[in-house]
Amino acid sequence: MKKPELLSPAGNLTKLQIALAYGADAVYASVGNFSLRQRSAKEFDLESFEEGVRLAHKSGAKFYATINGFPYNTQLDNLKKHIKTISEFGVDAFIIATPGVMKLAKEIAPNIEIHLSTQANVMNYLDAQIYHEMGASRIVAAREMSLKDAVLIKEMIPSLELEIFCHGSMCFAYSGRCLVSAVQSGRLSNRGSCANDCRFNYELYAKSPENGALFRLEEDEYGTHIMNSKDLNLSKHIERILQTGAVDSLKIEGRTKSEYYAACATKAYRMAIDDAIAGKFNPEIYAAELNTLKNRGFSDGYLIHKPYERDDTQNHTTSIEEGTHQVHAISLDGKSFKTKFKIDTKYEYEIFAPVNAVIDSVENEIGAIYKKDDNKYYVKFKKLVSTKGKEFDEIHSGNENEINLPANLPEFSFLRKEIIEGE
């Protein structure tokens, strides 16, 4: 059974380090320019982007730079400069959506691989072959492509790598060629400034052309989320996907996602891949972890089933659902934590740590770290003392004080707690 690459999002330098700590084989990111992630311009500048490439390579991971926007003529000179600049950072591949940008990248940086973006919407071996001949070493398949089609493409073009999305937000327009934001708010989705209009609730009306009467079609008192796609979750199918041998990379979507999302999704799919290879695949474990994330409800999309066979890919009730757990804190250095929600001395908090992390049990004046029957580690504080010596009764989000842990934890550990109604 072939072991595919696990590719995780790196929305900023911290999320990049978290993805690597939790088991990513490769990460992808951009600096905002010419990608579909304009918010990245606020998260990465050229200096931190170059540092991200260095950190990935130091960890033995690959770094892919997204240049998958659809540029106008007036942007082409700046695009050339951009490609040259980030190529000098030593990125391992460009993720590109258009033939013209592919050609440009080959001219400017011929030694850097090209991965064709899912925006190109490749669904068959004829299109895949054309892009491969043009220089793409990998195709990021359209989300609506089936696993059988992936297998056939691999059989027809063995030298072409295939990458598929395994988790994350799904666009109402499938592979993302959407104009809703452009129509409603002037924000161009295909140039990186999607306003997520498909997540809004809408009221539907019927109008009589005879008399102009307007009637609201009321589904419920809140209106309806008529375009709101559920999130993709292929965790239960990972073993089946690996058995085909057709998929070279499993990609986690991560636009505008949290640090905890980067950690949890990466760890869940790291475990799923490794367990499948080891012959101990257990989908309930990965589902339980992914259910801790905020989501829009989960669907296994179209890789296993054709779109017309599905009737559960939309969430018509709400644009977001709470996960089973709330993240209360994060420890970047393993010595102290910053609060994300609330920490006090009344409750115990589960420690969520990187794959194969070593945690020692301890008890002292600060608190206790211990292992319970569920084979998980927890921490309970006796007192909350900042690294500067200030003591608190409880800590809420927004408090920037770094609070001491009873003992060192692995870097990038989280403290989380199951959401129980009434607490």
Describe this structure in words.
By secondary structure, this protein is an alpha/beta fold. The protein folds into two domains: 253 residues, TIM Barrel (Alpha-Beta Barrel); 94 residues, Beta Barrel (Elongation Factor Tu (Ef-tu), domain 3). It is built from eleven helices and 24 strands. The strands form five sheets. Strands 1-2-3-4-5-6-7-11 form an eight-stranded parallel barrel, surrounded by five helices. Strands 17-18-19-16-24-13-14-23 form an eight-stranded antiparallel sheet, with no helix packed on it. Helix 1 packs parallel to helix 3. The model has no long low-confidence stretch (mean pLDDT 89).
Strand order of the largest sheet: 1-2-3-4-5-6-7-11
- Spatial separation of the terminal alpha carbons: 46 Å
Q: Give the overall pLDDT as a whole number.
A: 89
Number of strands: 24
- Main CATH class of the largest domain: Alpha Beta
Q: Structural class of the helices, strands and pairings?
A: alpha/beta
Name the overall outline: globular
Largest sheet: 8 strands, parallel, barrel
Rg result = 23 Å
CATH topology of the largest domain: TIM Barrel
Write the CATH architecture name of the largest domain.
Answer: Alpha-Beta Barrel
Count of individual domains? 2
Content of β-strand: 15-25%
Low-confidence stretches: none
> How many helical stretches?
11
* The CATH fourth-level homologous superfamily of the largest domain: Aldolase class I
Helix content: 25-40%
Family: Belongs to the peptidase U32 family.
GO biological process, one term: proteolysis
GO molecular function, one term: peptidase activity
Keywords: Hydrolase, Protease
